[in-house]
Amino acid sequence: MATEPILTTHTGSLPRPQAVLQLIADREAGEAVDAAEGEALLDRAVEECVDRQIAAGIDVVSDGEFSKPGYSTYVKDRLTGFSGEGALPVPADLADYPDYARRVFGERALAALKTPACVGEIRYRGEEAVQQDIDRLGRSLRGRATGFLTAASPGVISLFLKNKHYASRESYLQALSDAMRHEYRAIHDAGLLLQIDCPDLTMGSHMEYPGYTLRDLRRELALHVEALNHAVADIPPERMRIHVCWGNYEGPHHRDVEFKSIVDIVLSVRPSGLSFVAANPRHEHEWKVWGEIRIPDDKVLIPGVIDSTTNFIEHPELVAERLLRFVRVVGPERVVAGTDCGFSTFAGMHAVDPAIVWAKLEALAEGARIATRSLRQAPRPPSVVAHA
User: Fold this and answer.
1) pTM of the predicted model, to two decimals?
2) Do the bridges between strand 193-197 and strand 146-152 make them parallel or antiparallel, or are there none, so unpaired?
3) 3-state secondary structure (DSSP) of residue 22
4) Residue 212 CB neighbour total at 10 angstroms
């Protein structure tokens, strides 16, 4: 039986205050920004964000990604070799519904998103920026919670920032891996949990490889995993987690690859924690997949039990039910309550009203408490599903 509560976390990004959005917009536009004033603003905003997460009942908290214009594209400012403007890939499911696609891609924040291409040699130059993120979150935590910082995977960078320099996809991924390992290591060395965002492993099927056969898709995704594992080869798996999703937008998602077709590839990553979609109506049923496969003993499941694209506030009892599905598969010690994705993956772009975001996180925490109570009251531990 669970003797400790089921922990809670989320995927990283949270709604940025208006002043932070203006700061990011000014920086992206190349406007003159007082560096000290900007850092002071971020310090105050992140401290308030951490306070609110803790007050909502979140155990493993982030900086909200407040310093970043986007979870994947921020690297353009931390890596050499990127310039100009690249084309943002249109998901295949939205291409099937062009009128709706125009609504989604017409959002100001998304339309203003900068996606330069790789036109030269890639080297890491973000030491100061990542250290500022580390120090800012550390000051805000004050020992009250566990902190994590997010970083883009080599694969997701290659998805959003196209290669026009390296001779092959493999060499591009290798260059990104060699560069990003500096950021990954800095976060780990600071004593924070490292979350690597890897939606390329799941949404790559309908954004980057929509015409591929499953066999060809799996071959390409294996290259992404190889690049990721190379970059984190010297970081303990238990100090890392990844996040996968099929794109954080309210769309048809009928072109999404089925999780069962690639879950073995996802499980081959070195990080122990696996944050994945488990609440939205296109993928909620896939909790059954985990009972049909052999899950390595070191893996911890972080199912999204809160949808990040709708303004419904999930009932805590439903959150508890969703959590218990996974507890019955791997046991309570290997389940952490999470969200389907971030709530502001790109600055200024969010489907959920900021005030409702916090109510959803409170429902997440309450659902985890309900699930924990039900485990403590059980006459015997729930049986773990036998794997095939």
Assistant:
1) 0.94
2) parallel
3) helix
4) 16
> How many domains would you assign to the chain?
1
pLDDT tens digits, 280-323: 999 999 999 999 999 999 999 999 999 999 999 999 999 999 99
Q: Which of 5-19, 77-91, 129-143 has the lowest mean pLDDT?
A: 77-91
**CA pair distance 93, 105, nearest whole angstrom:** 13
Q: How far apart are the first and last CA of the chain?
A: 24
Partnered with residue 346 across adjacent β-strands are: 70, 349
Give dist(CA 312, CA 24) in Å, integer: 29
Q: Which of 230, 222, 161, 228 is nearest to 195 (CA)?
A: 228
H helices of the chain, in order, are 18-28, 35-56, 92-95, 98-105, 108-111, 127-141, 154-160, 169-189, 200-207, 214-231, 263-266, 316-330, 354-377
Question: Residue 3 has which token pair?
Answer: 């003797």
User: Which residue has 């009251």 as its token pair?
Assistant: 377
Q: Which domain holds residue 116?
A: 18-377
Q: Which amino acid is at 213?
A: T
Q: Does residue 163 belong to any structural domain of this protein?
A: yes
Nearest alpha carbon to residue 265 among 225, 301, 229, 231: 225
Query: Got the DSSP string for 263-282?
Result: HHHHTTSS-SEEEEE-SSTT
- For residue 225, being part of any structural domain is answered with yes
Q: Is residue 386 part of a domain?
A: no
Q: Tell me how far apart the alpha carbons of residues 124 and 181 are, in angstroms, rounded to a whole number.
A: 9
> Residue 80: which CATH number?
3.20.20.210
Question: Does any domain span residue 4?
Answer: no
Q: Give the rounded percent of residues in the chain with a pLDDT score beyond 90.
A: 85
The DSSP string of 246-312 is S-SS-S--TTPPPGGGTHHHHTTSS-SEEEEE-SSTTTGGGGGGGGSSPPPTT-EEEEE-S-SS---
Summarised one tens digit per residue, pLDDT across range 51-110 is 999 999 999 999 999 999 999 999 999 999 999 887 777 899 999 999 998 887 765 555
Q: Indicate if the pLDDT at residue 21 is higher than 50.
A: yes
